[in-house]
């Protein structure tokens, strides 16, 4: 993920390919699966200190389902193109922050394990996709009010 600026200045376009692991990333919601993210692209020298960075990221990310919290894998393919400016005194161009930004701005806001996920029981927390709990049968039963009902 690190490129020596000196070497970059000698070439017009440099192709690259590297894998980012989940442990390399801090600011994203999802979690990469064990294969990590494959980042494939080029760095092109535009002018002194300015590089055009273009890449695609291919990966499987795991998000908790928004309704039942079940870990849900999502296949992601993101494109990124931007100009990266490097200060005079920097010797290394590190693409990891750029990769992280690309994932951060693209990752899905709300993931469902399936369109018709039944979610969790609001009373007992049971996952209703796997089994029905008894809570429904009692309607709005709440043990805290049972004593009051007996008084009526
Ligand atoms: Zn779900
Ligand atoms: Zn329940």
UniProtKB/TrEMBL annotation:
Pfam families: YceD. This is DUF177 domain-containing protein.
